[in-house]
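Dig into what follows:
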Amino acid sequence: MAERNIKLTIEYKGTSFAGWQMQDGPRTVQAEITEAIRRVTGETVDLIGAGRTDSGVHALGQVANFHTNHSLDAGRFRDALNFHLSDEIRTKESSEMPLGFHARFDARYRRYRYLLAREKSAIYRELRWENPVELDFDRLRQAASLVVGEHDFGPFCVVSSLKEDNRCRIDFSHWFKVGPLFVFEVRGNRFLHSMVRSLVGGMVNLATIRPDNNMHNLTLERFGSIITAKSDERVVFTAPACGLYLVRVGYRANGKANDGR
């Protein structure tokens, strides 16, 4: 059988995982799916993910690919892998791709969502950030609008993970409300380590209404100057991982971009 390239779209609850990337010891999403593939195909593959989600971060549409010589119909990999996976990971789709397809390098954008609630829940506490502070919603929206465009997001990245080039292009960034939830949606061509959580942490900090004369710790002006590199400040407010979701990874299908916000 000739070598084949299989693309997977994956959903997982990140609470009990030490992130996507395989590590010695801790439980990871990549390791569990790789083991499921071994059980189905008898092969130990190199599973390539579109993004390395951190410990505790969830995914609704993570994408990965692997090469195999197995003859199983591409669409049937979904159910075959799910049979061997824990309930915290589901393969939503499986399809055959050209051999050159690469889940990470061929991605045109990543879309993330962050969920924040002021109330506590016995059921949803592992799926959102529960923060009882009073928020100025207009300030949240103003801050989100400053993120759009191409900027050096190094101040929002874990120092040890900084790259030679830390510029990212953000296509959209906005907050909206759904019932008791404050929801942040952001899409860009790339994201740095902890960048979305740092953006959310900074925005929540500057939008928090405080008893002491309603003063904000981080101002819109300071936040904007950090994004536009007019300041050497770093954002040190990082939102918890439990509220973050990798929603979608976009690729070119037959040469055309595919989105859907």
User: Anything to note?
Assistant: Residues 76 and 242 are 31 Å apart (CA to CA). The longest strand covers residues 167-178. Residues 254-261 have pLDDT under 50 and may be disordered. The radius of gyration is 20 Å.
